[in-house]
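Researcher: Sequence recovery benchmark, item below. Answer with residues only.
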């Protein structure tokens, strides 16, 4: 990243590496986060995302590279002096303190000391923000998981950090409460007018909450950065296509502008907007399940269904998800089963062992070369 590029961002991670002994856990990561953006670091366990967050917070020191905030290099600035604050996944609330005292704790550690009336004013303001003023005198064990999370958020915001760091912010909640809390947490962060970086291994959480996603690989590298829609609809690699959501991947070789795949009776037309790989090179075509149409019989003319391609198969499994079903289909000769997402309102229903016909448009695929 150039010096000009580093100076332009609010928070800039510039070529950061972190090694523990001989192991490299964060490998030359560079990214820029805009002011007031909610940015998600997404990836599997052990990919270095939490280590990267801890380096931003000052809890770990980079082996190489720089971290800048508003153009200021944070090297040598201890964690307690950085304009950042972290909300841990365990919330780490003091069990013997009331909600009010938990939120006030960090304010009472500030130097020079704040006046008690100023501390009281800020605590009241934050409890109003997270809608917990009526629970100010309760202890953490008297709160629900969602309420504890909001107390932890208020405490993290108390010292008015420039950057709020959320480490797996919803992992302590059960699935139903977590889904309901995602947008609530986003709204609270927006109202707090703060830049936010969150770490998560939950792709749905990242897609729902973040303005942009940075997907990390198990090797500690940053694979793709972009808005959720772009990362999902235009993955830049097989890793992204398979990690974010589900996909059908066709592997083959480019010949004559088409992808020739072992086991498929005809070569696949490539998307008309794709930059074609070199003739004779290996490539993959990613096709999301919702782009695959499932029919009980082969149509007389695929063009009648707006499809460029079709294949016969047999239903292997049906995963019912309420609003839709994911139907797994064995295609003779294909390297792997294909998936189709079928909305529940569509008829007929599909059952295991049923012969079916899969149809799709070339324009819905994404060509990948890595």
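Model:
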């Amino acid at each position: 990243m150039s010096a000009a590029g580093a100076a332009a961002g609010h928070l800039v991670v510039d070529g950061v590496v972190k090694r523990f002994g001989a192991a490299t856990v964060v490998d030359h990561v560079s990214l820029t986060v805009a002011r007031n953006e909610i940015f998600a670091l997404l990836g599997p366990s052990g990919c270095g995302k939490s280590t990267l967050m801890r380096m931003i917070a000052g809890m770990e020191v980079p082996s190489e590279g720089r971290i800048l905030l508003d153009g200021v290099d944070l090297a040598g600035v201890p964690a307690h002096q950085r304009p950042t604050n972290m909300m841990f996944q365990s919330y780490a609330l003091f069990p013997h303190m009331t909600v009010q005292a938990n939120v006030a704790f960090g304010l009472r550690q500030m130097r020079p000391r704040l006046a008690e009336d100023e501390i009281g004013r800020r605590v009241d303001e934050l409890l109003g923000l997270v809608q917990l003023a009526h629970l100010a005198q309760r202890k953490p064990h008297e709160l629900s998981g969602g309420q504890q999370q909001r107390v932890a958020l208020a405490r993290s915001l108390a010292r008015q950090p420039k950057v709020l760091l959320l480490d797996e912010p919803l992992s302590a909640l059960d699935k139903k409460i977590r889904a309901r809390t995602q947008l609530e947490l986003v709204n609270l962060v927006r109202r707090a007018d703060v830049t936010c970086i969150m770490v998560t291994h939950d792709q749905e959480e990242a897609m729902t909450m973040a303005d942009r996603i940075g997907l990390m690989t198990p090797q500690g590298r940053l694979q793709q950065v972009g808005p959720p829609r772009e990362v999902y609809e235009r993955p830049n690699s097989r890793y992204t296509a398979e990690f974010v959501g589900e996909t059908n991947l066709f592997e083959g070789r480019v010949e004559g502008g088409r992808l020739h795949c072992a086991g498929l009776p005809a070569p696949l037309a490539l998307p008309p907007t794709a930059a074609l790989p070199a003739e004779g090179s290996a490539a993959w075509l990613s096709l999301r399940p919702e782009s695959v149409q499932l029919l009980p019989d082969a149509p007389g003319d695929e063009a009648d269904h707006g499809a460029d391609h079709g294949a016969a198969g047999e239903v292997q499994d049906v995963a019912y998800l309420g609003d839709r079903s994911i139907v797994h289909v064995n295609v003779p000769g294909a390297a792997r089963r294909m998936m189709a997402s079928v909305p529940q309102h569509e008829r007929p229903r599909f059952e295991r062992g049923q012969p079916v016909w899969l149809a799709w448009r070339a324009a819905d695929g994404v060509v990948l070369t890595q």
